[in-house]
Amino acid sequence: MFKSRWEKEFKEANPGECKDIENKIRKLAFRRLDVKKQCMKNLLKIATPDEALYRKIMLSLGYKKNKTQFLNLALITPYSEFIS
Q1: Residue 2 contacts by C-beta under 8 Å, 6 or more apart in sequence?
Q2: 12-43: per-residue pLDDT in tens?
Q3: What kind and span of H or E run contains 7?
């Protein structure tokens, strides 16, 4: 059974190479996830869970060009100021 609509088309286009490419993509995805998990673990050493999540959300809201500015904004206005 196919998990997504493009997966069927991809397998039909490259039946021999599909598994190899799929495995590479899966490995890269897990590697990226491991990096993100380690980053969050490190952040949790210096911040509360709520603050860590707030910082990560702010960082992601900055997209590519404004990540640093949004992280600075999160540091200037910590989560604790919003809940008090």
Answers
A1: 8, 11
A2: 556 566 678 888 888 889 999 999 999 999 99
A3: helix 5-13
Do 47 and 59 touch, CB atoms closer than 8 A? no
**How far does the chain reach from its first CA to its final CA, in angstroms?**
50
Q: Give the global pTM.
A: 0.68
Closest to 47 in 3D by CA, of 71, 24, 25, 28:
71
> Are 41 and 56 within 8 A, CB to CB?
no
| Token pair recorded at residue 69 | 């500015």
Please give the structure tokens belonging to residue 57: 């959300």
**Alpha carbons 84 and 81: distance in angstroms, whole number:** 6
Contact 14, 21 (CB under 8 A): yes
